Each structure stands twice: as structure tokens, then as C-alpha cells.
């Protein structure tokens, strides 16, 4: 007798990262999507009553909370506005998710970001480093993390940075944005003094699967554990895919003189804590870049 795949609840299932998880694990899990765009059962995570009913009626043991307002520039324009969409989705929506998981006893897997840090640390951030967001998106995600970490249910927080993946998506990821600009010769100077930790989404979906398989709880950095400058990343993409155009070096400090929006100098994440526990290995970022279809 065949056994049905386990059910997993998802928020934000149509987003860049979540859509990879759904497609790459479509035969392993049954997905129940808590999305406002769901044609048969729309669920708005900012509507507590609607959300509680949907979660309570699900047999899923795990809820993966992908949904987030991630446009950092638009978030900056809403700074300190608790009636804005960024705060409503990232904080109030997460508050409802936490309450629903507490009531139903579900294990909450919350996807967070390196933007909870201020970027002043020259080294990749560890889980023991104190968050200190410098813009509204990071602030709302940090508030969401605090709600999750205080939850009276099993929880796991996974922080990532600058995701890119192998599957096509309407929202261009960091790699495909660079590719498009190289092909059209519109690539601006790339910072040599800004560092980040690229996240290969295909590997990150395996981390989520690992959390579900092992029921691991706690806070983990889950990017790649690597640190790249924008300039290095663009050069690697161009070289591996033989793309046209000139990549010129840029200076973040000079750029910051032209904008009022803060910009972290470093969002790379130290992933040693996670990597030592995983039962599989991350692909090197250079290898991941090479296998992406451009």
C-alpha cells in the first residue's frame, strides 16, 4: 500500500525561493499553500482569523514561512510606518503565523535575512553576533525573528543572503539581473568594497528538507558560507558564461555619498554551525554559477 507524501504548509509559495522548494521537492511533499493568491482557498497572513482557520485545519507538522516584503528600497520609503505593507507582512503577518503554530503545535521554519546586521563587521557574521539593522526591511525582519524565537512551539530560523537559483522565475535573482545587464551592456560599476554571501537556492531547499527530516530547531546561517565582492561575483559570471561587456570596479563609499538609503558593507554569513550538522555538502558558489542556464 502506497504512503502519501507528508504535508507541508507554505506561505509565499510563489516567491523566488519558495517556488524552487516546491518544484524541487514536488514528489517528496504535498504542499498546502497559505497564499492570498490561492484561487480556491485564499489566505492573507495579516488576517489572523483567516490564517488560524487554515492552519488549524491542516494535518501538516511543519509550516515554512517564506512570505515577506523584500523590496529593500520600497521598505526604506516606508521607514517607521507600521501601517505600511512592509511592516504588516514582515511583522504582523509573522506574529499571526507564530500564534497559529503555537495553537496547532506545528514546527515553524522561518526564512530570514543577513540584513538584520549593520554590515560593519569585516568578517562573515555568526549566529552569536548581535543583530543591529540599519534600514526598515532589516528592522522588520529582526522584529519577526524575535517573535519566532519567543514562540511556544518548535521553531527554526534560517538566515540567507542574495539568493540565486537554477529555475526560471518572474522575479530576477541577483545573478540573472547581472546577466541581463551584461547582455545589454548596461552593467554599472560593481563594488570592490562590498561583501555578501551568495545563497544557491537549490542547496538551500535541501537545508529546509534537512530541517524537516531531522526536526532540527534553533537559529542557523544558511547561505553558502562564502564571501564575495560584487565585482568578483560579476567577473565569475562573465568568465564562466563567456558574456560580453566590460566590468568596471565601483566604490561603495563613493556611492553612499549619493544616496540617503543605508547600505551594509558586509552581509556575508558564517555557516559553520549549520555545515557541521548537515548530512550533505553545499556546492561551491563558482560551481553553482557555472551550472545556471543564462
Set down the secondary structure blueprint.
Blueprint lengths: L6 E5 L4 H9 L5 E5 L13 H9 L5 E4 L6 H6 L7 H20 L2 E7 L22 H14 L5 E6 L2 E2 L9 H10 L6 E2 L3 E2 L2 E2 H14 L3 E4 L6 E2 H12 L7 E2 L1 H5 L15 H4 L9 H7 L3
Parallel strand pairs: 1-2, 1-3, 3-4, 4-5, 5-10, 6-9, 7-12
Antiparallel strand pairs: 8-11
Helix pairs in contact: 1-7, 2-4, 4-5
Short overview:
The protein is an alpha/beta fold and 294 residues long. It has helices spanning 16-24, 48-56, 72-77, 85-104, 136-149, 174-183, 201-214, 230-241, 252-256, 272-275, 285-291, and strands at 7-11, 30-34, 62-65, 107-113, 155-160, 163-164, 190-191, 195-196, 199-200, 218-221, 228-229, 249-250.
Explain this structure:
This protein is α/β, with parallel strands linked by helices. It has a domain at 7-167 and 199-224 and 270-283: 3-Layer(aba) Sandwich (Rossmann fold), CATH 3.40.50. It has helices spanning 16-24, 48-56, 72-77, 85-104, 136-149, 174-183, 201-214, 230-241, 252-256, 272-275, 285-291; strands at residues 7-11, 30-34, 62-65, 107-113, 155-160, 163-164, 190-191, 195-196, 199-200, 218-221, 228-229, 249-250. The strands form four sheets. It has a six-stranded parallel β-sheet, with helices on both faces. A two-stranded parallel sheet has the order 6-9. Strands 7-12 form a two-stranded parallel sheet. α2 packs parallel to α4 (85-104) and α4 packs parallel to α5 (136-149). The longest helix has 20 residues, at 85-104. The mean pLDDT is 95.
Amino acid at each position: 500500500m502506497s504512503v502519501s507524501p507528508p504535508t507541508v504548509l507554505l506561505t509565499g509559495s510563489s516567491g523566488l525561493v519558495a517556488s524552487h522548494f516546491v518544484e524541487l521537492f514536488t514528489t517528496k511533499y504535498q504542499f498546502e499553500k497559505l497564499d492570498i493568491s490561492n484561487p480556491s482557498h485564499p489566505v492573507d497572513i495579516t488576517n489572523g482569523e483567516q490564517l488560524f482557520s487554515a492552519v488549524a485545519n491542516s494535518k501538516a507538522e511543519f509550516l515554512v514561512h517564506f512570505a515577506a516584503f523584500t523590496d529593500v528600497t520600497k521598505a526604506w520609503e516606508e521607514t517607521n510606518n507600521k501601517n505600511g505593507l512592509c511592516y504588516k507582512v514582515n511583522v504582523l503577518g509573522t506574529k499571526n503565523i507564530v500564534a497559529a503554530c503555537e495553537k496547532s503545535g506545528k514546527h515553524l521554519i522561518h526564512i530570514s535575512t543577513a540584513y538584520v546586521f549593520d554590515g560593519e563587521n569585516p568578517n562573515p557574521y555568526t549566529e552569536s553576533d548581535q543583530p543591529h539593522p540599519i534600514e526598515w526591511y532589516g528592522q522588520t525582519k529582526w522584529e519577526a525573528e524575535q517573535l519566532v524565537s519567543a514562540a511556544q512551539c518548535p521553531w527554526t530560523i534560517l538566515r540567507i543572503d542574495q539568493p540565486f537559483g537554477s529555475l526560471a522565475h518572474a522575479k530576477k535573482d541577483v545573478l540573472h539581473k547581472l546577466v541581463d545587464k551584461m547582455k545589454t551592456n548596461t552593467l554599472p560599476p560593481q563594488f570592490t568594497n562590498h561583501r555578501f554571501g551568495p545563497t544557491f537556492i537549490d542547496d538551500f531547499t535541501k537545508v529546509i528538507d534537512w530541517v524537516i527530516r531531522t526536526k532540527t530547531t534553533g537559529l542557523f546561517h544558511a547561505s553558502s558560507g562564502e564571501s564575495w565582492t560584487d565585482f568578483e561575483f560579476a567577473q565569475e559570471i562573465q568568465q564562466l558564461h563567456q558574456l560580453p561587456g566590460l566590468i568596471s570596479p565601483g566604490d561603495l563609499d563613493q556611492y553612499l555619498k549619493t544616496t540617503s538609503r543605508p547600505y551594509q558593507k558586509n552581509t556575508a554569513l558564517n555557516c559553520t554551525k549549520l555545515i557541521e550538522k548537515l548530512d550533505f555538502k553545499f556546492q561551491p558558489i563558482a560551481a553553482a554559477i557555472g551550472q545556471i542556464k543564462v
